[in-house]
Amino acid sequence: MRIVAMENEAQTEIEEFSEEDFREIYKCLLTIGFAECVEEEADVEKKKLKLRRARLAMRFLVNLVQRSEKFGSSISHESIDLIESLLVVGEFDKEILILLTKTADFGGYLEFQKSTRYSKLLEKVVDSFYKANQKGDSIENDALAYFSIIFEKDYAILANCYAEMKAQNFAKLLGIFEFLIEENCVNSKIHENNLLFCLNLLELICMDNQSYIKSQEKKYPKSVEERKMATVETIKLLVEIVGEMCSNTQMTSKLNEKATTICCIFDILDTILQTEAIFFEYRQNHEFPSENPPKDEKIRKALLEEKRIEEAKKKQPDRPDQPKPARLKRVEESETLSAISQVFLEFWKNVKDEDYGTIGEIKLNCLKAIANLCELSMENKLASCKNGRMGLLSILQCTTRRPIWFFESYAIQKWAIFCVRQLTEDCLENKEVILNLDQPAQPIMDRQKLLSQFGLKSVLEDEKFKLKPIQE
């Protein structure tokens, strides 16, 4: 093994074998690795010896691949079952991920596509990544290196995985995809088709998702339910990806094309606003959370703070009530958007500790994406007030601070104000929306009481109101 790893002459020796021999070597070494580590052994020393043999076989295979490109590119799709089994065992994740990365670089992913187990193998790699991420293990970087090559070279990887994977597993894969884009840790470009698939999937969810679910509901009820449960996480990741794509020069033309993307983002934002209105009404009659109080101390404190604020409001009758979130007729009339709103509502009703701020995060990312998209083109600004959308009014609703149990970031108000500026800059249509807004029916405060607290009064002189000290 040392000779194969260190000696330059080893490459010549290796490549004298035929492709059929290479495939047998793959199969033999993978089998040795798997057999040695799964065979039961009561004796501790013998068990250690077996694991050592298995690890030697794996490292020998890795050295062969690293020394010879011809050997690396000869991997067979028939090896997938053994590789998948070794990932399940979990003893040789690092060696297997290095093997997958090197063979993918040589085009091995094309061979793997011949196997019906390819998506299952990817699921195991995804699981290895998240396990390593929780432990802070270096295997996380090996998994990222593999996916960076796959997302660059395999133009249909996301589309195929969406069709073949369970919805929750696909959301995890999409999470890795988003992480690579956000952290900019891909040495080479992600294939444009994979980025374009994210835009198409967002459009599918916003415009035709309910039709798809209805068509599959009778045949695959379990699969449909899983897809509904993963909808919130999938939307969250897609919106984040769109925001990151605004800085990708190869995708700006796609983002501006027919302004479809910004319309989808506004649809998601409107759906969240609709859900807030429904959930606000639900909260009037239900103690939240009704059954499972949150374990997280910060969340419990936030809920107690909400009660304290409500009690304080009762002691100040002159203080205006916070405006209630308003329902959106456009969302109620859309079958697909109403269905998404219902998914969001169920998510809020049954929220878990780690997910309290998820929908607030989606809302914030929608605002970021809208601001970035409006900066790209005038067409995106105009799309906000066409086809029944009142984008500017939706943005203005986001400037209002929601009750504390919505767990929204304070950055939402700042981004909403920035979006208003982006939408109205050099856009007469959106400026007219602002000019035509009615004055609020309820004043912000009792003006006379406020003046008296400062020792002032309002006096009419020469048909104009002037402020004077109360003593006069």
UniProtKB/TrEMBL annotation:
Pfam families in UniProt: Atx10homo_assoc
Q: Where is this region: Disordered?
A: 310-330
Q: Read off the InterPro entries from this record.
A: Ataxin-10_domain (IPR019156)
Domain of life, per lineage: Eukaryota
Q: Where is the Ataxin-10 domain?
A: 363-467
**Name under which the protein is recorded:** Ataxin-10 domain-containing protein
Organism of origin:
Caenorhabditis angaria
Q: What lineage is this protein's organism placed in?
A: Eukaryota, Metazoa, Ecdysozoa, Nematoda, Chromadorea
